[in-house]
Design goal:
2 copies of one chain form a homodimer. The first copy, chain A, is an alpha+beta fold. Chain A is about 55% helix and about 10% strand. The first copy, chain A, has a domain of about 80 residues: Winged helix-like DNA-binding domain superfamily/Winged helix DNA-binding domain (Arc Repressor Mutant, subunit A). A 3-stranded antiparallel beta sheet of chain A has the order 1-3-2. The relative contact order of chain A is 0.11. Chains A and B meet through helix 1, helix 2, helix 4 and helix 5 of A and helix 1, helix 2, helix 4 and helix 5 of B. Chain A binds a DNA duplex through helix 4.
DNA sequence: TTTTCATATGAAAGAGAATTCATATTTATT
DNA sequence: AATAAATATGAATTCTCTTTCATATGAAAA
């Protein structure tokens, strides 16, 4: 792209969409969300239960926190991360339904899709 | 990443999430969706109304079609693309609500976010 | 107050998706 | 049949996000 950066296309209000969906387009972050769905956890707990290196978890949580998909509260030297379920859970439900009713199982896009 | 590719972390069912959200994490595709929300259009019509080069539109539509966010029907030598609104519109509503109620306007993540 | 535990941060490297551009394909029109 | 119009495709490049890893910061424990 020449002049205007890609995000500029979104204008103001749509930066939200970009950050939100970019977060959800990431496997690790989805796994974090699914893990927090069950129970709030510290960084170390997430790191251990998902078997993922700590700083990776931290970076991921930073983005998730940014658009308030999660929020954190201090507890001693830990930070307990909690999922903001109000938006995420209904959103997952929508996709699950989409997968079942619209895609009817073949949503997995074999070969013809530019996304791997 | 060493062995397993990133998508593998998703296991089976979650490929859907990845393709779906990766599509939505893209400004052009969001703009296409918003344009089709108003009225179904051919590739050329989209290209002109968004002022974006044709093949770019085509590539974008291919991915969107893949996970059935849009679908196309032939009409002469044109392809009329139509938005599958059932999933997308409720999803946008969720985010709009999230932006208003949860983020209260500061969802734009200034600087502290890893996502540009 | 030094050590240890917990988390965050920065920057370089890596990976994946978007863009570009040339060209192929497909369908209509003449 | 040849041309034109509409769309699709492939591959190289570019762009953006993620990963990595070393290290910094902050808070409790010894």
């Amino acid at each position: 792209m020449k002049k205007s950066s890609k995000k500029k296309e979104y204008k103001k209000l749509d930066k939200t969409y970009h950050v939100f969906f970019t977060n959800l387009a990431n496997p690790l972050k989805i796994n974090i969300i699914l893990s927090l769905k069950r129970k709030k956890k510290s960084v170390t707990e997430l790191s251990k239960s998902l078997n993922i290196e700590q700083s990776k978890i931290s970076h991921a949580l930073t983005s998730l926190k940014c658009c308030k998909i999660v929020h954190a509260k201090k507890k001693g030297r830990k930070r307990i991360y909690e999922l903001n379920k109000e938006t995420i859970l209904p959103m997952f439900k929508l996709i699950n339904k989409h997968a079942k009713t619209v895609c009817k199982g073949d949503c997995v896009c074999k070969g013809d899709c530019t996304i791997k």
